[in-house]
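SEVERITY: medium
COMPONENT: batch folding queue
REPORTER: lab tech (J.R.)

DESCRIPTION
The queue accepted two submissions in a row. Attaching both inputs and their returned structure tokens so the on-call engineer can compare them side by side.

ATTACHMENT 1
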Amino acid sequence: MTRFLLTLVSVCFISNTHFAQNYKYGKISKEELEATSHSLDSEANAAVLYRKASTKFVYDEEDGFMVRTEFQERIKIYNKDGYKYATQEIGLYKSGNAVEQANNLKAVTYNLVDGSIKESKLQSKGIFDEERSKSLKVKKFTMPDIQDGCIIEYKYSFVSPFISRIDEFRFQEEIPVDKVDMQFFAPEYLVYRTHGKGSLPLNIKNEKKGRTIRFKYQSGGVSRPDGGRNASELDLIENGYIVNLENVPAIKEEPFTGNLNNYMSALQFELSYTKFPNAPLRTYTTSWEDVAKKIYKSEAFGEELELTKYYRDDIEALLSGVSDPKEKIAKIYAFIKTKMSWNEYYGVYVDKGVKKAYKEGVGNIADINLMFISMLNYAGIEASPVLISTKSNGIPFFPTRSGFNYVVAGVKINGGLFLLDGADKYGTIGILKTNLLNWKGRMVKKDGSSRLVDLYPPKPAVHNSFMNIEISDDLTITGNSKNRFSGHYARNQRGVFGDLSEDEQVEKMEERYASIETIDHSFKDMKDIHKPLSLEYNFEDEAHIEEIGDKIYITPLFHLATEKNYFTAEDRAYPVDFTYPWTDKYNVSIKIPEGYKVESLPESLNVNLSEGMGSYRYGVSEAMGKISIAVQNAIKTPVIGAEYYKDLQQYYKMIVEKENEKIVLVKS
């Protein structure tokens, strides 16, 4: 799998520079270094001035075809916010003895000093190797002498034995890309399909050219693409894909994006079939059913689910006398989380194997959750593996075994399907970590069948808040707030406050709600992750009340008010990702201070999003010396498509305006 980033884009015919540029490695101009901002995107902190990726297949008599890419990149850094681009990574995957390699890395930083170009070459001390997992290593390098206005340039050769699926060439980045040249040539024996994503149109040129492969002649016969003929040369045709684009606009990250990489326009090459001379056609393109069967039949997956002897005695003792299926699930779930620790390695295939992992008490995601599923099935609970691609891993848009990097248990409970992660110490039934809530998962079964599974929780996260407010003579607001969090809200709150001291909790609360001063607070059921979390606190607030003449103006939701519209961009090319469905319910009671009466109250408001995706209710009333405000905001569809962006933008505009309207009290 190729592990370099490539930006391609829709063609723009406006030239970004007014001087001739030389894109040959090392040919940096003073004009490039003198530029203080990007001519088409003045807000850009950096820009890719040039990228070149030239991919072809080399042939080795022992290993067969391998993918080789010559990669070059030139980046302009305008200011300190662009310094992060001075650190680059090259992912190198391995499977068994097959390993990717990055060779001949050269890199230079260029600065303009007293009118002359100064070069600072990358040294070995700036290159690091990191192991991200058993199958992924990263070569990371950080460029020297980074200053405002500098240019970095690097090149390397990338060689991969994994020809069945080439990682995507990205068409967009978060910074502008001025020019990109890409060519991909594959021998006629290897036929690829392309898969595109994102909203930008592609302009791919197809080209054919002849090529001769030369061999070292050996007797005894070796496996060659010519079917084993004793020949030292072979003529063939290469099929090429060429892209030459300029002035690619940056894709900007907006609020509630999720993984921006999911929406960057990209192209991926997938091996469809091979047809060597004197050999049968072999297909590689698969359906989801093929993927499910192949994964399940793997020794590192399906066979591991069948093993039971290593835990049998422990589970028998654990479930002794237990007949209720729900209680069995709860006990096994608690047991696996106590027994096993995750080593933070992802993957759908076991690393150590379930037996060894169980003995040592530690394993990767597959070790733990395949073990968990096996235990549930042993106890008579219907459970199956559900394959997931985490948000950082992207969305598997087409059938692929390598598109998933996580597996959880899908458990049937009273006719419904609930997802459980045995590797998540804070997990509860049906509540997965937010980085797993990425489109759909795919459940695979022993019979080879599979189906899509909704990863989002069946119930929304709910925040109920009840506030009682009094106003003192010096116009200080004192309030009591009682809150109840369920679902992902409870999980998130526990993640923020669970490991903090009381003083640290107060500090965190006041950081979150800058307008209040917390006097005292208390959490309930912080450690009981299967219950909703309760929080009560008393506070003082001076920011949401104002006296002008003989009138008092109050913002009635105080620190819970939505103060700004997050959706200010004119257009949006990708969905809004709220992560999970949620409902906020706020009830506020304000005691009218003596000597005052109500002059005006905000009007009620009812708003519905298109297609039932959300709703907002705002009501206010006065009775018995008190003002009551009731607000409910519910987002029922966690991922809202870009086609509804204008509706969502207007929806939040009305919410912000309504929640910042004032109650007006006047002296009686």
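ATTACHMENT 2
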Amino acid sequence: MEQNKYLDYLAELYPTIEKASTEVINLQSIINLPKGTEHFLSDIHGEYEAFSHVLRNGSGAVRKKIDDVFGHTLGTAEKRSVATLIYYPREKLEQMRQSGEDMQNWYRVTLYRLIELCRVVSSKYTRSKVRKALPPDYAYVIEELITEKPELSDKEAYYEAIIQTILDIGRAEPFIIAMAELIQRLVVDHLHIIGDIFDRGPQPHQIMDCLMGYHSLDIQWGNHDVLWMGAAAGQQACIATVIRLCLRYGNLDILEDGYGINMLPLVTFTLETYGEDEAEAFGIKTPEEKADISLALQKRMHKAISIIQFKLEGQLARENPEFGMQERDILDRIDYDRMRVRIEDIWYDLLDSSFPTIDPADPCALTDQECDVMKRMTRAFKNCEKLQKHVKFLLKQGSLYKVYNGNLLYHGCMPMNEDGTFMEVAVYGETFHGKALYDVLEQYVRKAFFSMDEGEKEKGRNILWFLWSAPGSPLYGRSKMATFERYLIADEATHQEKKNAYYRLLDQPETAERILREFGLEGEEPRIINGHVPVHQKEGESPVKCGGKVLIIDGGFPRPYHRETGIAGYTLIYNSYGMSLTAHEPFESTEIAIQEEKDIVSHQVAVSYSQKRKTVGDTDNGKRLLKKITELKELISAYRSGTIKERGN
């Protein structure tokens, strides 16, 4: 009965045998096309310029297409010039205009090269999909130029006439820009961001603007992303932490200029309360050129918001004992007479002894002035239109994990015990593990923004803080976040944040197999793709774990990590031939990339490779199309048997 109802519904869409048959043929042709290229990036951390360049060059995919198309017919310098034009068409055109080049001849040669590239990169898609990707102003002309026309006796003359018309009417430059951007779009079919867009680097807001205009993507939230989501939701510990991190890395511009959040309430409070404080323990990790006269004020602001953060975290740890974060109620462990603190039953001297806002009798209580600062900052974050727009996009396109084309994507880890079993984590009176833990935590994240029940909304807001830094958080995966210890205790033994057993078990293939089974994935091909913990390539560490079943693609996009990791980020490409990891050298600047035509130096390593190309039919979308083909064939049979009557003329 249900099947008949569904066929009746399908008959509304395909009212005749001819229409149903045509759709079967169309779908069948799609599933036989090569699988689209997937591009994976992780832990971008506000490094917009490097991110933008990697996005534009498709982790080397654009350059590979140039090599495939032009082979030995172009020299290395010419190929580099074509690549730069595709990455930065407007800037490259400006450079060419100033070079004294014969522009009419250059336009003609360039158009022919871009047309040839467009033909190749569009060949793996249906004409319908390519048509949707075409810029509206030039859609018809580009389609004519990149579509083979075997019926024409003199194709050369046909194409030459179109190109000459483009030149004659002065539209060469906008046409070149449109072609270059189309190549960028067609080289990568789908983008995966495996978490941590925010913090450390100076331009996360620009990364978010860029992602919001991208044609096809998904995002797996990282702990730094949920921190900003918590701040946007009004969770005060998250707000204090976001401000602290912006100060720590000399990035107040993100808040003030990027999001228009006024820091005056914190500035005023700092001047009144910490005006003479040297705040030496609260240094700013800022480039030398930014170390101006305001650095002293920033250090004091850094201290002021850090103390507020420690107080708010202590309150949350007391109110939510099931979070297992009692050690973050650290202000209550200080001996304020001797200025020392007890960590795991050992006393340590503090590096700072001036805490004018702390009442030893109730150390986590905010003063009236601190309360006022946080009320005003909470209003600013919640009323910031741009931040709210970005967070809505993260909620719409994002999740804690994703199963996509047979791979499991998540940012951090699967919380595990030392024996390899899944860790039981308490969430508001119940315990969860494995996939169920991910699912319930994501439900609470969404409640923070969408629940009509204020109590549930508050629980959701607090879960965002839990996800940021709790031992049981799959996004964090460490025993504690030792912020207080790193600032105020000299002994580096207290700074250690022990990683979850997951990271020690990654050399055992059964670890990945157990996790993949938990998410319904089995066999040789499925892999876990995650980031979060930088891979130290210069120490010989490999991003390929668990016998190739786990790929950790955090290679350290942020500049502070480059010396530590030896590279500037891993990315992953998954195309119809297989998977390849790319290790990137540090990106100098967009200006150098354009002026000197310098690409990021990248080193590719094949993870898997097959002579037989994967098709759309091998993907998740292909499986849906195959199911629809089966249903349409049933509809055609029903038409032919008389079970359902055709409705067309």
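NOTES FROM REPORTER
The radius of gyration is 28 Å.
No errors were logged for either attachment.
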